[in-house]
Specification:
Elements (H helix, E strand, L loop, with lengths): L18 H42 L2 H29 L4 H33 L6 H27 L2 H26 L9 H30 L14
Helix pairs in contact: 1-2, 1-3, 1-4, 2-3, 3-6, 4-5, 4-6, 5-6
Length: about 240
């Protein structure tokens, strides 16, 4: 997802073509790469905005915040489809490193599209509520959405600057979202539903925010893989002591 200047990867000539034609083809493929990378970065900012508006919706029940989340979700759908349709042709014209960048862009937009869906599910549940969510629950849900927004901002800056520290911070912050989610589940599963009719909705919203955090950690792992050339998801197993 790194943004680069539009310079060709190679000057390799294609049999039957003159050097000028092959150079133009190389430049065209590079432009496609840069366009896809910029689009993936844009998707990260859109997902970040969705998380911000979830916080606003929870706090102020803002109709504008709901519409903004809906628009973000739709834009993320369009972006995922755009990259999915254009990546196969682009990846056949680039070297291994740039192919890795393209695949990272595809994986990232898939995760970001799912984050958009999860933010929309939270927004729709807030909008459909007939009873007020307790203030203590709102504070915890806001904490989760604020942490998610910060994680997405770190992911964006990490891909722009190729900064591994951003990925490390995101992986640590996901634990904060898990902690709050676990606390909400402990609280509501021990209460009687009659005394707290909003409990079920609160748990579903917390679960959606927690899952969005998991997708954001996937982004951080993709950033790590892009920079280090190896995946955190497939770390070698330690040998048993002999």
């Amino acid at each position: 997802m790194e943004e680069e200047s539009a310079t060709p990867d190679t000057a390799a000539e294609i049999p039957g073509q003159n050097p000028t034609a092959s150079k133009k083809a190389a430049m065209k493929s590079t432009a496609s790469l840069d366009d896809l990378a910029r689009t993936a970065l844009k998707a990260c900012l859109i997902a970040r905005d969705a998380a911000f508006n979830v916080r606003d919706l929870l706090t102020h029940s803002s109709r504008m915040a709901f519409l903004a989340i809906k628009e973000c979700e739709q834009e993320l759908d369009v972006i995922e489809r755009y990259i999915d349709e254009r990546l196969p042709a682009a990846i056949t014209r680039v070297n291994e490193m740039r192919a890795r960048q393209l695949l990272t862009s595809l994986k990232c937009t898939t995760n970001l599209e799912r984050i958009g869906d999860l933010m929309m599910s939270v927004a729709m549940r807030v909008q459909s509520r007939t009873s007020k969510i307790p203030a203590s629950d709102v504070r915890q849900l806001v904490e989760m959405s604020s942490t998610l927004r910060e994680m997405l901002d770190l992911v964006y800056r990490g891909f722009v600057d190729l900064d591994l520290e951003c990925a490390r911070k995101v992986l640590q912050m996901d634990k904060d979202i898990d902690r709050v989610c676990h606390g909400l589940f402990q609280k509501h599963l021990t209460e009687h539903s009659e005394s707290n009719p909003s409990g079920f909705d609160v748990l579903l919203m917390a679960q959606a925010l927690e899952r969005a955090g998991d997708h954001t950690t996937n982004l951080a792992e993709d950033l790590y893989s892009l920079i280090e050339g190896r995946s955190l998801r497939h770390a070698p197993k330690k040998r048993a002591a002999t």
